[in-house]
Design a protein that fits this description.
alpha+beta; Pseudouridine synthase; 10-stranded mixed sheet; two-stranded antiparallel ribbon
């Protein structure tokens, strides 16, 4: 797997949908992004993860010290992450009572808890960890039978499945989501329509400001995907 950026301290990669970030349980789940990268860069270490069905930008450290410094950036929320997704319905109408900021962003606050009886599903629950996401609409479509929206998302916190759970909790599951969308919404796309398209941070060794983009050509209009990232 070829990085889109590499230096002596870190790697920036673009993970395809369908590929695990790290090995799973069982011999059939050993192929993953981290193993593919480590075959070429033996010092590469995981700093954060993307869900298997999510595509997009992922950062890996080179060596223990780089992993420590990059992990600290994530812990202190100094890494800017921006996603794009296609969701069912019109979330702007759902959150119409909350006025957006000057750039069109609205906020979702909802504590997230693992649903132990239905794991790996997560739910909004008072006993969950405090979680916050920001989102804004880019495009909407509406017909007699179905409506959808192309949105940008920024996770303020970093909980498991956070963006998927927050949008589903508002009544707007992501198209192609095998965990949180009802069958008819899942069937609208051959993959989860969630992509990590922007990543920005200050290099923990050189102090250079770095920003990376991996845009996708998605739309709120059927068939929703203009260009896909096939699993190699």
């Amino acid at each position: 797997m070829t990085p889109i950026h590499e230096d002596e301290h870190l790697l920036v990669l673009e993970k395809p949908s369908g590929l695990l970030s790290v090995p799973g349980r069982g011999p059939d789940k050993q192929d993953c992004l981290s193993k593919r990268v480590q075959d070429r860069y033996p010092d590469a270490l995981i700093v954060h993860r993307l869900d298997q069905d999510t595509s997009g930008l992922l950062l890996m450290a080179r060596g223990i010290e780089a992993q420590r410094r990059l992990s600290k950036l994530f812990e202190t929320r100094q890494v800017k992450k921006r996603y794009v997704a296609v969701v069912a319905g019109q979330p702007e109408q759902t959150q119409a009572a909350e006025l957006p900021d000057e750039d069109g962003w609205r906020t979702i606050d909802g504590p997230i808890l693992l649903d132990w009886e239905r794991r790996p599903l997560h739910i909004i629950h008072p006993d969950g960890k405090a979680s916050r996401s920001r989102w804004r609409a880019l495009q909407s479509s509406h017909s007699d039978n179905f409506s959808a929206s192309l949105i940008e998302l920024e996770p303020v916190t970093g909980r498991t499945h956070q963006l998927r759970v927050h949008m589903q909790s508002m009544g707007h599951p992501m198209l192609g989501d095998s965990l949180y969308a009802p069958p008819d919404i899942k069937a609208l796309s051959p993959r989860l329509l969630l992509h990590a398209q922007e990543l920005a941070f200050v290099h923990p060794f050189t102090e250079q400001a770095l920003a990376f983009k991996a845009p996708v050509q998605w739309s709120a209009l059927s068939p929703f995907i203009a260009g896909q990232h096939p699993l190699p």
